[in-house]
Structures are given as structure tokens and as C-alpha cells.
Design goal:
Elements: E1 17-20, E2 29-32, E3 39-41, H1 44-54, E4 57-60, E5 69-72, H2 73-86, E6 92-98, H3 99-106, E7 116-123, H4 128-144, H5 155-162, E8 165-170, E9 175-182, E10 188-196, E11 208-211, H6 213-217, E12 232-235, H7 240-249, H8 264-273, H9 283-297, H10 301-315, H11 320-337, H12 343-365, H13 371-377, E13 384-386, E14 402-404
Parallel strand pairs: 7-10
Antiparallel strand pairs: 1-2, 3-12, 4-5, 6-7, 6-11, 8-9, 9-10, 11-12, 13-14
Helix pairs in contact: 1-3, 2-4, 8-11, 9-11, 11-12
Length: 408
């Protein structure tokens, strides 16, 4: 159900705090007397789930024959946090867990279906130099966890080997940077460094942000129902109880849909493929907004196909059935809700999706590729050919890119 009405968030500042000493060996924590509607402390079971994820061994994979880096996620966060604190030119204002892992921690379902880990470091970015310094800190932390000799390893080589994605956006409304790592299971570990960001979520179920400092402060001290840290979670969407209800009942809810970037269309189709519900009468208008923004952000067929392909690589890589369902839903949404494209451009992206779905059906059924059957399935008024290749991360040449197919 799309909830398009706005929520009146409480603008009052944090209320008076009192010092609460937890029983056991945990340190003293400061806990507000009452939480606002948009935030609440985690329960003991939720803290256990959070601790299990953050203390799970991770093996960071590197290109160019670099050795695998083995560490726990909490060790990576703690080391990077300390580097940022020690840098006098940067002002760290908090470390939070976001995205599908935060949703998993809050969900009643204990199925671990997340494919990436999103970590947010709120830090002041006053210039281009600050972004480069942040990158240097990430590389320094990676080198600290290397077991081989690091004296002769150049930072550029470490960056090329372990940073699979680098992105920055600085304008009037946004100032943030993204550095993405990858583990041996092909799972992304996204490190976001945010000074300001206009839109920090797409739907209510991915609007949760969990503070990690309390978990870092207890080190490896055991937790019990009578003794565990006060860890706060906030919903940027609005009242946190509503967001948690949407998560548990599999309801799609959003607001200010015109602010969602182009990738929101792909996330929306992914949620539909995972049996999330849209029961609002306004869903068609929402789809039109998301389709329009997708084609504004990705104006050419090459960028459109790459965006879809990369999303499938990052979020749908292990489930062929849900990949086919995702493509079918995306195709139907584009056909029904696209109003901003010329007929030729519309037929190009539709033909591309049909092509990929056709090929994946052949792979699923273990059938032999038939070029005549394929060409018959594509609209002859706008045929597009794509190179077939093994799905991998890395170089641009390994990503499917469109080429014009001559008429047969």
C-alpha cells in the first residue's frame, strides 16, 4: 500500500537525559526519558541480531591477485571510525547501519536475505580534498588488516584491487561520497560518507538507521536480557512503528515520490517480485513518477541497460526465478506507466528487457540458443543486440552494452 500522505514529524529537540547505569559489566549510557515517534531503542533480540551481523567474519576479495583480507565488520567500522576521529580536518558526527541489514535486524522474519551491507559515516566534507582524505583513510584501514608485507604496497594498487565502486555527488542539496568493497561471496559492503543528502531512503522499509557507537563501546563483552547496550534506531520516513509494520506486513509505502532517484523504479519492481503489496489507488501515478525519473537519470539505452544489469548483479544474482519475475514486472510497469519517451526509445528498452528475459529463459530450461527464434521475439522496428558474457563485477567491458543489430 502506498502511503503518500505526509507525516508530521516532531521537531522538538531531545528531551532531558538521565544517566542510566546498566547492570553487569557494560559502561554507563545516557538514555533519554522518552523517544520521539520516529526513533526507539532496540530490544535484546534485535541487539543480538545486530551483533551477530557485525561480528560475522568477512573475507574482502581483491583483484590483481591481492590476498583476501579477513576481518569482522565491527573491526572495519571501529578502525575506520578511529581514523576519521583522529583526522583534525574531518568532523565525525556518527556511524549508522542502513539498508537491508537494518531492515533484517528489525524484521520479525529471521531469514537473512540481504545481499549488501550499508554503512553510513556522517562527516563534514568541506572540499574536494576532504573526499580524497576519506578515501586515503579507507585504504589505510585495509592495509592495516593485510597479513602480508605492506611497506611496498602502493595506495593506488590497493584502491584498484579492493574499491569496486567509487562515486561522489556534490551540489547545492547533496554532498556525499560512496566507496564500495566486495567480499568473496560477491556481497557489497557500501561505505557512505555523508555531509548532506537530500533523499536518504526510497521506501519506508529502507528508511531505518541504527546507531553503531553503543555496540562499538562494549567491545566483546557478553550481552544478556538484563545487560545489553542502548542502541537507537530511527526511521527517516516518519513514525517508526508504521515503518516496522510496513516491513513485517510487506507493504510498499513512500512519500514525496518525485524526490526518488531513477534507481527507485528498480527497487520498486524488486519489492513487487518479493511479494510486497501495493493496494493504494495512487500506485499508477507513483509508477509514472518513477518511470519518468528513471529515464531522466538514464537518458540513453546504454545507460538504462547498464543500470538494470548492475542492479541485477548486486541484488538478484543468486535467484534466477526472481530475476525473471523482476524483469517481467519491470517490463509491464514500463509498458503501462512510461509517458516521457518517444516511441522509438520506448521500443528500444522494451526490446532489451525482452531479449534478456528470453536468454535467461533459455538458460533456465537448458535449451540451445536459437538466433531465429530470438529475432522473432524482438520487435523488428527497433532491434538491439547485446553481447552475451559471464556475469561478473569489475571492468566496463564485462557489462552488457547495446549494439545496433542490422536488419535480417
Amino acid at each position: 500500500m502506498f502511503i503518500l500522505r505526509g507525516y508530521a514529524l516532531e521537531n522538538s529537540k531531545a528531551q532531558e537525559s538521565v544517566t542510566v547505569k546498566l547492570r553487569g559489566a557494560l559502561p554507563i549510557s545516557k538514555m533519554p526519558v522518552s523517544a520521539s515517534a520516529s526513533r526507539k531503542p532496540l530490544t535484546f533480540k534485535q541487539c543480538e541480531k545486530l551483533s551477530a551481523v557485525m561480528r560475522e567474519p568477512v573475507q574482502l576479495s581483491g583483484k590483481n591477485r591481492f590476498p583476501v583480507i579477513e576481518l569482522e565488520m565491527i573491526e572495519l567500522v571501529s578502525a575506520l571510525r578511529q581514523h576519521l576521529i583522529d583526522d583534525p580536518t574531518l568532523s565525525l558526527d556518527g556511524v549508522k547501519l542502513n539498508g537491508s541489514v537494518a531492515s533484517y535486524v528489525l524484521s520479525q522474519d529471521n531469514t537473512r536475505d540481504f545481499n549488501d551491507i550499508d554503512l553510513i559515516f556522517y562527516v563534514s566534507i568541506k572540499s574536494e580534498i576532504a573526499i580524497h582524505r576519506i578515501k586515503d583513510h579507507v585504504i589505510s584501514v585495509l592495509k592495516e588488516f593485510m597479513t602480508t608485507s605492506k611497506e611496498y604496497i602502493d595506495n593506488k594498487d590497493v584502491s584498484a584491487a579492493f574499491l569496486f565502486k567509487m562515486f561522489k555527488l556534490c551540489d547545492n542539496s547533496n554532498c556525499w561520497s560512496l566507496l564500495s568493497l566486495c567480499d568473496v561471496d560477491n556481497r557489497s559492503i557500501d561505505l557512505k560518507f555523508i555531509d548532506k543528502m537530500k533523499r536518504k531512503y526510497e521506501f519506508s522499509i529502507d528508511s531505518f538507521q541504527i546507531e553503531l557507537e553503543p555496540l562499538l563501546s562494549i567491545c566483546r563483552k557478553p550481552m544478556s536480557p538484563e545487560c545489553f547496550p542502548v542502541v537507537w534506531v530511527e526511521s527517516l520516513f516518519g513514525p517508526i512503528e508504521d515503518s516496522i509494520r510496513h516491513l513485517n506486513q510487506k507493504i510498499i509505502a513512500t512519500k514525496c515520490v518525485e524526490e526518488i532517484r531513477g534507481g527507485g523504479l528498480l527497487k520498486y519492481c524488486h519489492l513487487l517480485a518479493r511479494k510486497y503489496n501495493t493496494v493504494s489507488k495512487d500506485y499508477f501515478e507513483v509508477q509514472k513518477y518513477m518511470c519518468s525519473r528513471f529515464f531522466i537519470d538514464f537518458p540513453k539505452i546504454s545507460s538504462q541497460s547498464q543500470a538494470i544489469w548492475n542492479y541485477m548483479l548486486n541484488h538478484l544474482k543468486y535467484d534466477n526465478e526472481i530475476q525473471l519475475l523482476f524483469l517481467s514486472i519491470l517490463l509491464s510497469v514500463i509498458k503501462a506507466s512510461t509517458v516521457c519517451l518517444m516511441n522509438l526509445e520506448r521500443r528500444e528498452i522494451i526490446s532489451w528487457i525482452e531479449y534478456i528475459r528470453f536468454c535467461m529463459n533459455f538458460q533456465t530450461n537448458k535449451s540451445v540458443y536459437c538466433s531465429k527464434a530470438l529475432s522473432a521475439s524482438i520487435n523488428h522496428t527497433s532491434q538491439t543486440e547485446f553481447r552475451a558474457g559471464r556475469l561478473k563485477r569489475g571492468t566496463e567491458s564485462e557489462i552488457i552494452a547495446p549494439k545496433q543489430l542490422k536488419r535480417q
